[in-house]
Amino acid sequence: MAKPELRWQTRRCVAVLDPAAEAGSSHAQRFVVRREGGDDGWAEFDLARQVVDETTATDPDVVHAARCWLAARGCFELQLHTRGGDSVASGPFDVESLGDPPAQSPAQRLVTLAPSNAELVEALGAFDKVVACEDSTDHPPMAASLPRLGPDLGPDLAKVEALQPALVVSSLSVPGMERIVTGLRARGIPQVVLAPRTIDDVLHDLRRVGARLGLAARADEVVERMQAEIAALRRTHPAKPVRMYLEWWPRPMFSPGRDTYADELIALAGGVNVFGERAGASVQVEAEELVKAAPELCFVSWCGVDESKLDPQRLIGRPGLEQLPAAKAGRVYRLDERFSGRPGPRMLEAARRMAAAIVDSGVRRG
User: Fold this and answer.
1) For a designed S-S bond to 53, which of 3, 41, 79, 187 qualifies (C-beta 3.0 to 4.6 A apart)?
2) How high does pLDDT run on average in the chain?
3) Is the dihedral of CA 52, 56, 59, 65 positive or negative?
4) For residue 4, what pLDDT band results from cuts at 50, 70 and 90?
5) Is the pLDDT of residue 141 over 90?
6) pLDDT tens digit string along 40-53?
7) What is the pLDDT of residue 185?
8) How far is residue 313's CA from residue 324's CA, in Å, rounded to a whole number?
């Protein structure tokens, strides 16, 4: 039997998915909790309630682990109980509490563990302080010469520890990243944790990280520039918003829901997300639902796929989409996911490109 994959950990235990539990969504998981020198425990988390056995409940770090699991799924309200119903901890929390408090002096030796985090540090003019990053970081160009630590959902934390960074810029922007944040904490590696869900969150993160690096004034400049860009985009909106479909993955089809920065980017471009009424950051849709939604413009922006390999024909020629007006009219565009899929300082480029497509298509001409 393959070794179960670590899902989260504390300094006293590790948690893996329970192999006996029925497969479910990432928003409801049951774990085997393995403790050194003791019997295995268990835990069961979903967005509404998190339950642990009585022994695990005494672990001082389990509250942090449960909060990280929730934050990676866009939830910031903890309801942690024992199986007997006793409350361990409850109430709202913020992402800032999941990292370490600021050091007395600005951090000079950094590790970044998401492409958007590397771009944020670069925007602050501090990328020369970065000593390593995860594999998918491709900006700024100087990142090409840095040591790589593995994929963004599975970096080698032993390598991170060996580098002795003053600060790791980690993330809880997608499910699975809780194993990284809890793993760093278990190793005593200082980190600032980001979990941006909105454009305002990105602006706030710029100021948070800027303060940690002694670059508060520079952070203010970047935020003010982005705010000016946002205002400029709003001034160019068409009189009537354009109905847009943004595709994050083709099979099965996934698109942004209402709870994500991508929905905001579509609005900034002068559009309305045809699936923007659906709860969640990423929603699965069927071909018949897309035809019924009748988008005027479509964008293919598949996660992890280089812009040169994005093929609008894979949407236009897909079974079930023969009647899609945007496909018939040739209004299906490539959109680089390095802008649309990364919550960082370059994200507004996605809105600019979608706005340009509105003009190019002529869908609101006259």
Assistant:
1) 41
2) 93
3) negative
4) low
5) yes
6) 999 999 999 999 99
7) 98
8) 13
Where is 355: in which H helix or E strand? helix 348-361
What span, in angstroms and rounded, lies between the C-alpha atoms of 89 and 73?
19
The two three-digit tokens of residue 231, written as one number: 């205002």
Helix (H), strand (E) at residue 51: strand 50-52
* Sign of the dihedral defined by the CA atoms of residues 45, 48, 50, 51, in that order: negative
3-state class percentages of the chain: helix first, strand second, coil last, to nearest 5: 35, 20, 45
Phi then psi dihedrals of residue 365, to 5 deg = -70, 135
For residue 248, count other CB atoms closer than 10 A to its CB: 21
307 burial type by CB count under 10 A (0-12 exposed, 13-18 middle, 19+ buried): middle
Closest CA to 301 of 352, 257, 339, 251: 339
Task: Give the C-alpha separation, 262 to 269, whole Å.
Answer: 11
CA 239 vs. chain centroid, Å, equals 32
Rounded-to-integer distance, Cα 184 and Cα 190, Å: 7
Query: What is the pTM (predicted TM-score) of this model?
Result: 0.93
3-state secondary structure of 72: coil
Angle 287-293-298 from CA coordinates, rounded to 5°: 75
CA 201, 203, 209, 211 dihedral sign is negative
Query: Encoding tokens for residue 67?
Result: 């909060």
CA distances from 362 to 3, 329, 330, 334, 349 (A): 55, 11, 11, 17, 20
